[in-house]
Amino acid sequence: MSKKWYNFFVTVDTPAGGGPEEAAAARTPAQTVAEIAASVAAEPKFTAPVSNPTSFDEIYRAAEIHAPAHGYTIFKIADLLQSEHIRELPAPVKRSSVLLALEAAGVKPNEIIEDAVRRDRALDTYERVLQKSLEDVEVRKTEDSRRLEAELEKLAAEYRARIQANSDEIAREKERFYGWRLQKQQEEKRIADAVAPFVSENPITTSGPAAAPKAAPPAAPKA
To answer: What total number of domains does the chain contain?
Structure first.
């Protein structure tokens, strides 16, 4: 196990004067805690929904983890370790102080370890629930985004086609207009040629309409 909080509760001393066989037979704290953890259900059952995932107390309640009658949970121990009377003491003294408090309350260290393991496993289980929910959302939203992208591309293609159709219609109208203007100029020239012998100054215009005057540049702002 990677969590070392159990060192506050469990130690295994090698018998004094013991030889290699006795040392090999001695159980380590990790082995002791592993046995305790094995006695706790590996997968806690959640009997109620969790409305607020940021509330760990609600997660524990949903997993049917409640404080025992004596009130000593792993969080009670955490508070003791952070109290002003203990937090600055050396680790062995901290451990002895906590064990004395447990003994005075009639609480076995194994109960604290079991409480810690149950809460840890509840958090791990709920993490998997949240991760599965996240993965489901990601799958749904990714598929929805693909659908929207396809619809967007289809819509964009339709609009591009309409824009192109507008450009083509403008081009046709321009071609029709400029063709008519050319015919108009030819018609005006024919008229002008016919009236020329009778006037000193020909009143018939044969050129295209005057270009629209260019817009005056905007006035510079006053200082």
So the answer is: 1
Give residue 9's domain range: 5-149
Mark 100-137 as b/e (b = at least 16 C-beta within 10 Å).
eebeeeebebebbbbbbbbbbbbeebbeeeeeeeeeee
- Answer whether residue 52 is part of any domain: yes
Indicate whether 189 belongs to any domain: no
> What count of other Cβ atoms lies within 10 Å of the Cβ of residue 36?
20
Residue 112 lies in a domain: yes
Give this prediction's pTM. 0.59
> What are 86-142's pLDDT values in tens digits?
888 898 898 898 899 999 999 998 899 889 998 999 999 999 999 999 999 999 999
Residues in the chain: 223
Confirm whether 125 is domain-assigned: yes
